[in-house]
Specification:
- By secondary structure, the chain is mainly beta.
- It is built from one helix and ten strands; from the N terminus they run E-E-E-E-E-H-E-E-E-E-E.
- It has one helix at 57-64, and strands spanning 2-7, 18-22, 26-32, 41-46, 49-53, 69-72, 76-79, 83-88, 94-98, 103-106.
- A hairpin with a 5-residue loop joins strand 8 and strand 9 (94-98).
Amino acid sequence: MIRRMKKLQLKKSQKFEWKDVDLKDVNYIDKWQRSGHSMAVLAYHTTNGSYHDLDILAEAAAALKDEGFIMVGRTALVQEEKIEKIQSIENNGSVITFKDGTQLHVLKQM
């Protein structure tokens, strides 16, 4: 199984970098924290580096852009081809209805 992950950033100054990681290449998984005050995440360690799941929506948007995902406001990342319709709600954002009937309320007026 291949997962899109981001390279562990040992320092805040390191730039965001993502990679498709095949779980077959993972040697081990452990909990990792950048600092004693940051949240622990699962780190996947391979011969070619260490990675963790995308945990910030903007980073996921950048990594999944070529897969057809678009950022909707600041609260959601949606696969554009799965959208059936978008209904604007006056002064209350929008409702996105997907082809399978599920709905997502977003704060962005569309």
